[in-house]
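Worked example 2:
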Amino acid sequence: MHDPSAIFRFQEHDLFLPMMVLEELDRGKKGTSEVARNVRQASRFLDRLMQGARKEAIDRGLPLPAPGHGPDGAAVGGRLFFQTRHLPNLLPESLPGNTPDNNILGTALALQEEQPERTVVIVSKDINLRIKAALLGIRAEDYLNDRVLDDVRLLYSGEQELAPDFWDQHDLEVESWQEEGRTFYRLRGPAIRHWYPNQCLYIPGDGGLEAMVRSLDGDGAVIERVTDYRSERHAVWGISARNREQNFALNMLMDPEIDFVSLLGMAGTGKTLLALAAGLTQTLDQNRYREIVMTRVTVPVGDDIGFLPGTEEEKMTPWMGALMDNLEVLTRTEGGEWGRAVTNDLMQSRIRIHSLNFMRGRTFLDKYIILDEAQNLTPKQMKTLVTRAGPGSKVVCLGNVGQIDTPYLTETTSGLTYAVDRFKAWPHSGHVTLRRGERSRLADFASENL
């Protein structure tokens, strides 16, 4: 129900499907939810494996597609067994009733008793089932194939601090030039092999360096000094960067060569404000994009507020409080009340709010697409959304993987983590993790201490 292709993920191991699992699949197949779709796909996979198989072949186990090869070069793949007969109930009296979980535990105990030479492991996303299994002495494991990383601390941060003597190490191999007011350096060295395209590099301190990797070639790289968006003359829609990470983020957001930008950071680090300011500048001033499309997952933090009246945009308005708050900051223009009203109307005419529910099949041309709260997306939903981008569009994903509201998603299985990890080596993508909160001293203290 969580991953329909799970039966193909266990390499050389044999799988045993209790009858209760098939019953559970049958119960969950109706409807249009993600789970119902997964159930129907899983059933189709099982049907395909069983096509043309006789009863004797099913009892011997259906061969699964071989993912690997053994030492002799032969294909190695496990077999899929179904529960085709009644197994004795060996459950202790402490587990009464015929609940699906207890039924599966009883099947595992009977298998262990029947085949002592083999190891029986229950693989389940259900934590309580795993706890019960451990109490009965059955080995139980979480399904780990959906994890992008073993630990979220291993997630690519998008930046790297260079040693203070970096220039001394590369002194003889540096070639520098200027092009249209931009400064480039070509370097060679062993450390470069571990860099990624558009990675942010910096040497802290006075006379330091802030640069981005522009191209890689084995142990050679071209890096470019970034534009300093902290100065007033480079302000983006009146917004200046307040720290190094925000400066790197604005460089990525304003770069037409970067089609996919992901910004991670806790509340108050400026993700939405930077993305909107860059979008408005490129939409209204530079005419690079036709309009801004903003969307987010509608997962409430508390109880749901029920059905909402109105059009798609009106229904999405309560979820777009962050957009309205940031527009308030961006419309603080000179010219009094009338000037602000005109600016507000102009901006809102170029910003479209869309629901994720109606994204399938759409194509956005020359649009600046902002996916807010992207940590609440599954990898499959993330793929659906990013593939909506047509020619001339840019996708900006914003989120905080420490603030996931979707059940069954964790920091290591979130679609945002998945996108950051899969896009890091692509030359037209950029990622940076914003660490310093800039909302207010109260918000910063609350983020750290509550």
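Confidence is low (pLDDT under 50) at residues 300-305. The longest strand covers residues 209-217.
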